[in-house]
Design goal:
Blueprint (H helix, E strand, L loop, with lengths): L7 E6 H9 L7 E2 L6 E5 L1 H22 L9 H18 L4 E2 L1 E7 L13 E9 L2 E5 L8 E2 L9 E5 L2
Parallel strand pairs: 2-9, 3-4
Antiparallel strand pairs: 1-3, 5-6, 5-9, 6-7, 7-8
Length: 161
């Protein structure tokens, strides 16, 4: 399950990525540390047309093999899997670390096939040439612009690593 090589638009300095990500946070939320000096801004077209189809196949494979009842098969595990698959795409593409994160929110509103659970939930976040995009990692149905993400006001933290 090796993803397609990451296609980047340009790189962004860690300080600039930190500032951009902090603007997404509601009061009381926090941002994990950035470990690299530069990050790759992801091509939206690559993400939507190349990566997501490959990721969906990988998720279906994992779901076919794993019990959906186990706690190890929930949103945070799929969020980490998504983040690691994008990271692997960066390795294959010989790029800077992708500007992709796992976001933990309070799922107050239904989003992309996941109901209003009223508990913590993890989603993927990507900085692309079309802005910040959110993806539900268990379903991977659609990329949603951050400003249309239903639970953006209930973010608890964002981690890029």
């Amino acid at each position: 399950m090796v993803p397609p090589a990451l296609v980047t638009v340009h790189t962004i300095k860690a300080e600039d990525l930190l500032i951009a990500a902090q603007k997404l946070l509601p009061k009381g939320a926090f941002l994990g540390p950035l470990l690299d000096d530069n990050y790759a801004v992801i091509s939206y077209d690559w993400l939507a047309q190349k990566f997501l189809p490959a990721y969906r196949v990988a998720v279906e494979t994992v779901q076919d093999m794993a019990s959906r009842e186990a706690e190890g098969a929930d949103c945070d595990n799929y969020g980490m899997f998504l983040r690691q698959m994008v990271g692997l795409a960066g390795i294959v593409g010989r790029s800077a670390e992708p500007a992709a994160a796992q976001v933990v929110v309070f799922q107050a509103k239904a989003f992309s096939g996941v109901p209003n659970t009223r508990e913590r939930h993890a989603v993927g976040l990507f900085l692309t040439d079309r802005g910040w995009m959110v993806l539900e990692p268990q379903k991977a149905v659609e990329l949603v612009p951050f400003d249309r993400y239903a639970n953006r006001r209930s973010i608890q933290y964002i981690t890029f690593h």
